[in-house]
Amino acid sequence: MITKITEFFRNLPTKQCHECGKEIEEQHECYGNSCNECLNVVDL
Ligand SMILES: [Zn+2]
User: How far is the CA of 4 from the centre of ligand 1 (A)?
Assistant: First the structure.
């Protein structure tokens, strides 16, 4: 049921970056558990 699916995603907790804890937008989920800022971090 479409309604149930919508409620399911709505009830999901906000995804947070595994590195800094910053909220991650849905569109970034394909990158894993890190936000763009952390993903762009280069080891110095
Ligand atoms: Zn981050």
Answer: 31
